[in-house]
Amino acid sequence: MNKQPEVEINQKIRDREIRLIGEDGEQLGIMSAEAANRIADERNLDLVKISPQAKPPVCKLMDYSKYKFEKSKKEKEAKKNQKQNELKKIWLSMTIDRHDLETKARSAAKFCVAGNKVEVSIRMKGRQQAHAKLGVGVMHDFYSIIEDVCVIEKAPTTEGRNILMIIAPKKQV
């Protein structure tokens, strides 16, 4: 796992001099770590090193448990907003039956409702390559079933032995 380095607090701060910032953000000046710890004890707060690379290191007076909670809350929010939509794949055949096509279309509609894009592919075998237009027709039949929840992002195109189409969720108004 990728564990972040632990933040130094209170007596764990061993630097000779630190720059101290109060709980309201005001500069309290440069002082020894011991003096800063005394100030933190008087105010019933923790001394937290927030910028260890600075010269001298910057420490702030704050409630450490509240700081950790806020930090974890921000990280969770950032992780939630970072979610990437996946590209789901569905394979069809040129000789697919109507019911099977509807079943695959329903699963593609579920993917679109969940916010994912769907790549629909048909692999042509043997003589089917000479009749690629039939495959494009199957793609259009597939799309006509789910056009109420999806839009075509990339129209059906033939690439080698495959016919590909990408559909995406409709934008909500």
From TrEMBL:
<dbReference type="GO" id="GO:0032790">
    <property type="term" value="P:ribosome disassembly"/>
</dbReference>
<protein>
    <recommendedName>
        <fullName>Translation initiation factor IF-3</fullName>
    </recommendedName>
</protein>
<dbReference type="GO" id="GO:0003743">
    <property type="term" value="F:translation initiation factor activity"/>
</dbReference>
<dbReference type="InterPro" id="IPR001288">
    <property type="entry name" value="Translation_initiation_fac_3"/>
</dbReference>
<dbReference type="GO" id="GO:0005829">
    <property type="term" value="C:cytosol"/>
</dbReference>
<feature type="domain" description="Translation initiation factor 3 C-terminal">
    <location>
        <begin position="86"/>
        <end position="170"/>
    </location>
</feature>
<comment type="subunit">
    <text>Monomer.</text>
</comment>
<dbReference type="GO" id="GO:0016020">
    <property type="term" value="C:membrane"/>
</dbReference>
<feature type="domain" description="Translation initiation factor 3 N-terminal">
    <location>
        <begin position="9"/>
        <end position="78"/>
    </location>
</feature>
<keyword id="KW-0648">Protein biosynthesis</keyword>
<comment type="function">
    <text>IF-3 binds to the 30S ribosomal subunit and shifts the equilibrium between 70S ribosomes and their 50S and 30S subunits in favor of the free subunits, thus enhancing the availability of 30S subunits on which protein synthesis initiation begins.</text>
</comment>
<comment type="similarity">
    <text>Belongs to the IF-3 family.</text>
</comment>
<keyword id="KW-0963">Cytoplasm</keyword>
<dbReference type="InterPro" id="IPR036787">
    <property type="entry name" value="T_IF-3_N_sf"/>
</dbReference>
<dbReference type="Pfam" id="PF00707">
    <property type="entry name" value="IF3_C"/>
</dbReference>
<dbReference type="InterPro" id="IPR036788">
    <property type="entry name" value="T_IF-3_C_sf"/>
</dbReference>
<dbReference type="Pfam" id="PF05198">
    <property type="entry name" value="IF3_N"/>
</dbReference>
<dbReference type="InterPro" id="IPR019815">
    <property type="entry name" value="Translation_initiation_fac_3_C"/>
</dbReference>
<keyword id="KW-0396">Initiation factor</keyword>
<dbReference type="GO" id="GO:0043022">
    <property type="term" value="F:ribosome binding"/>
</dbReference>
<dbReference type="InterPro" id="IPR019814">
    <property type="entry name" value="Translation_initiation_fac_3_N"/>
</dbReference>
<dbReference type="InterPro" id="IPR019813">
    <property type="entry name" value="Translation_initiation_fac3_CS"/>
</dbReference>
